[in-house]
Amino acid sequence: MDTQILNKMSYGVYIVSSVCGEKPVGCIVNSAIQVTYDTIAISIHHSNFTHKCVEDSGKFALSILGVDVEENVIPVFGFQSGKDVNKFQNFDYITVDGLPILEDTIGYIVCQVIGKLETDTHTVFLGKIIDTKMLKDDIPMTYAYYHAVKKGLSPKNAPTYREDKTEHKLAYRCKICGYIYEGDITKEPDSYVCPICKKGKEFFEKM
Question: For an engineered disulfide with 154, which of 77, 136, 158, 204 has Cβ 3.0 to 4.6 Å away?
Fold first, then answer.
């Protein structure tokens, strides 16, 4: 089976947010589609903390990320667990129908869960749209743009994650956001920071 063909499928980059009690939670997803005029489907890994919160609360918000989104958004929401940190604490956000919505997004779609489909690793939640709003005019970020321009990687819980088994030259990977530095990062000055998450070179590991 040639899985390279799957790289040719188009995806967006979104934040799915919900609540756990009164705690705001959210994660990055790239599998979200409009199923009908009033129904959205999203896919979340079983081990994601947001998965449990969507199940328990019965609702979620889908926010569309633009290409100019603040650089720390994807590292924070894509590579940390809401079980351990409050991902929203350092960002401006609003609350809609009890759900946290990051302000630095193109807009949001609030949904009530009306069904779900289980796979071995992910749950596909079906949500009936109950509210929507545009927040700003920006170009939606695609997963292809995220990889090609932002040089980002897929978290292992992402539906599109596939282990890279190709040969690479010397490179270092940021342990926070997955950014790949090609070359010997140890030769960079101590002031060097990751262009995505702004962490120092001590957060990079040799690949």
Answer: 158
